[in-house]
């Protein structure tokens, strides 16, 4: 059973009761992230996410983590391009205590100066770690090559100089503008009654000040750039990015099946050709990202630098063959079944359901309709996927990124 309510403060609540389980996942989702930041703010959404755990009016950072551990509960958070999420998972009998702790760190964080100074060092090391992870670095570069220096092109961590310059006032100012009730969704999934969930949400979020919220406009364009970072490492890493549909586009399911056939698993064309047949890569795959205004289909490979050009040529040939001949009926049916099973499997996972229903409500203001999505997938035809292939591989508009000990970057 799925229930929703808008609290008197303007915060939206969604509850998916999953009887027969012994646990519940609870999340607080905010519609903000790297895509909404200015150049000066670049990285602030992620830094605030870290700082929310560093002490409240009644608890120190250690007391927060200790209290969750005492319940046997798990707590974490993440920042994305257009979403920040704080979540906890507990046994159903400790749901009230776990949500009280989650609400405390979300609503009552004080951002102590000494913790800000300490956490800057932590985030700077996270930035260094990202620099030392060539796969992550390559995909970050691809986002910038595809979307430019703004919105979806931004690295979630932000540049080190920004992180070093953030002040306590900057954090409160950004949080006041973006963490407004109208821009917040509370999502529960698991063995918790709607009445219990509503009581908890009202108790902690019902009396928030109903502040006016003006969402920031994002100017989104596809840059089709080519970025290269020379690094003295053993492998070369490259990625191609192709413009794809936005998340509410009717062609979204067809693009997902197309991606599965291209590079979504061990039976995909990229895996079989580039890895199994040619032995040019250990890791080669594709995935799609879908946002409000745009999407990106990414193809990635990590290869021997001496064979980087050969591997890139092989990847391009796989895509060109898919464009030329399309997919077989067998590939289509297998891809469609994988998409259906993935959706079904997620229905049995409280964390996945909390995020799925919470995100959909935050992004669209509507309740995710699982039966409708399954019907859309079942209704897909091979021709639908063929049309997606025709519309999603424009090499003239593709973005490219590469990292490694190469004389020059990979190009199409």
Give the percentage of residues in beta strands: 15-25%
Q: What fraction, in percent, of the residue positions are helical?
A: 40-55%
Helix and strand element order: EEEHHEEHHHHHEHEEHHEEHHHHHE
Shape: globular
Number of strands: 11
Q: Which structural class fits the helix and strand makeup?
A: alpha+beta
What count of helical segments does DSSP give? 15
Low-confidence parts lasting 5 or more residues at pLDDT below 50? none
The largest sheet has its strands arranged as: 1-2-6-3-5-4
Straight-line N-to-C gap:
50 Å
Q: For the CA atoms, what is the radius of gyration?
A: 22 Å
Biggest β-sheet, characterized? 6 strands, mixed
Average pLDDT reading: 96
Describe the structure.
By secondary structure, the chain is of the alpha+beta class. 45% of the residues lie in helices and 19% in strands. The chain has 15 helices and eleven strands. It has helices at residues 44-51, 61-70, 95-107, 113-131, 134-147, 160-165, 168-178, 194-205, 252-263, 269-277, 308-325, 329-346, 350-364, 370-379, 382-392, and strands spanning 2-6, 12-17, 23-30, 74-79, 84-91, 184-190, 226-230, 236-244, 281-290, 295-303, 399-404. Strands 1-2-6-3-5-4 form a six-stranded mixed sheet, with helices on both faces. Strand 9 and strand 10 form a beta hairpin. The N and C termini lie far apart (50 Å).
């Amino acid at each position: 059973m799925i229930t929703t309510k808008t609290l008197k403060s303007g915060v939206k609540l969604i509850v998916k009761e999953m009887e027969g389980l012994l646990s519940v996942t609870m999340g607080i989702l905010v519609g903000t992230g790297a895509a909404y930041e200015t150049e000066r703010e670049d990285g602030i959404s992620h830094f605030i996410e870290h700082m929310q755990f560093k002490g409240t009016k009644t608890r120190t950072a250690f007391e927060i983590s200790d209290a969750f551990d005492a319940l046997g509960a798990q707590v974490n958070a993440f920042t994305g391009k257009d979403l920040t999420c704080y979540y906890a998972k507990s046994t159903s009998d400790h749901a009230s205590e776990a949500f009280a702790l989650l609400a405390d760190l979300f609503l009552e964080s004080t951002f102590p100066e000494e913790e800000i100074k300490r956490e800057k060092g932590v985030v700077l090391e996270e930035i260094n770690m990202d620099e030392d992870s060539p796969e992550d670095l390559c995909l970050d570069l691809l986002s910038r090559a595809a979307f430019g220096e703004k919105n979806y092109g931004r690295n979630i961590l932000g540049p080190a100089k920004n992180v070093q310059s953030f002040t306590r006032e900057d954090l409160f100012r950004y949080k006041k503008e973006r963490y407004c009730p109208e821009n917040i969704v509370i999502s529960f999934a698991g063995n918790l009654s709607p009445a219990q969930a509503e009581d908890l949400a009202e108790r902690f979020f019902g009396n928030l000040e109903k502040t006016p919220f003006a969402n920031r406009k994002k100017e989104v364009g596809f840059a089709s750039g080519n970025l290269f970072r020379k690094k003295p490492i053993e492998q070369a890493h490259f990625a191609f990015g192709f413009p794809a549909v936005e998340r509410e586009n009717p062609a979204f399911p067809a693009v997902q099946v197309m991606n599965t056939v291209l590079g979504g698993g061990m039976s995909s064309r990229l895996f079989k050709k580039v890895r199994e047949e040619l032995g040019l890569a250990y890791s080669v795959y594709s995935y799609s990202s879908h946002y409000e205004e745009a999407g990106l289909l990414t193809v990635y490979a990590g290869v021997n630098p001496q064979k980087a050009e050969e591997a890139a040529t092989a990847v391009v040939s796989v895509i060109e063959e898919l464009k030329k001949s399309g997919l077989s009926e067998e590939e289509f049916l297998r891809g469609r079944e994988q998409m259906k099973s993935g959706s079904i499997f997620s229905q049995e996972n409280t964390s996945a359901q909390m995020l799925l229903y919470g995100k959909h409500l935050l992004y669209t203001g509507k309740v995710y309709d699982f039966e409708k999505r399954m019907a859309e997938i079942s209704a897909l035809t091979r021709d639908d996927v063929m049309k997606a292939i025709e519309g999603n591989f424009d090499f003239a508009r593709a973005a490219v990124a590469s990292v490694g000990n190469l004389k020059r970057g990979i190009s199409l």
